[in-house]
Design goal:
By secondary structure, this protein is mostly helical. It has helices at 4-13, 22-33, 37-45, 60-71, 76-89, 102-113, 115-132. It has two domains: 4-45, no CATH class; 60-132, no CATH class. 64% of the residues lie in helices and 0% in strands. The N and C termini lie far apart (88 Å).
């Protein structure tokens, strides 16, 4: 005899927004009968692996800028401020709110000035900064 709770649960599957048609319900019941309770519970409640999104490849010019940022041991806000200051000196005009991450800021500047000019601008400035502030 089928339990009252089972009928209520199956009733939810055949009504409403997520309605299951009669033929689909027949296949579901046959599939459940063909498997053990433990197999069904495992399939329902085991954690599902989340698909990992492939990370976008970081362009070479941006890698060099990030390496330069690490040389001066600056946090992102300091590096972003300096990048925008250098870019403003050579004619960069920011559109909207300035970016809060260094890669995003570098890409924004590179859209106007070009990746190579942006990289050269920042990396050369870092080299000069490190030479001036080298500890003896």
């Amino acid at each position: 005899m089928i339990g009252e709770n089972t009928i209520l649960i199956l009733g939810r599957l055949v009504k409403g927004r997520n309605k299951v048609e009669q033929e689909e319900m027949r296949k579901l019941i046959e599939d459940l009968q063909g498997n053990s309770t433990d197999d069904v519970l495992h399939a329902l409640y085991s954690p599902k692996p989340k698909p990992k999104k492939p990370k976008a490849e970081v362009p070479e010019w941006l890698k060099k800028m990030q390496d330069a940022q690490k040389k001066v041991s600056w946090r992102a806000p300091e590096a972003i401020e300096q990048l925008y200051a250098l870019a403003d000196e050579v004619g960069f005009s920011s559109v909207g709110v300035r970016k809060r991450s260094f890669p995003a800021a570098a890409k924004e500047v590179a859209q106007q000035l070009g990746p190579d000019k942006t990289k050269d601008l920042f990396v050369e400035w870092v080299k000069e900064y490190v030479e001036k502030h080298v500890m003896v």
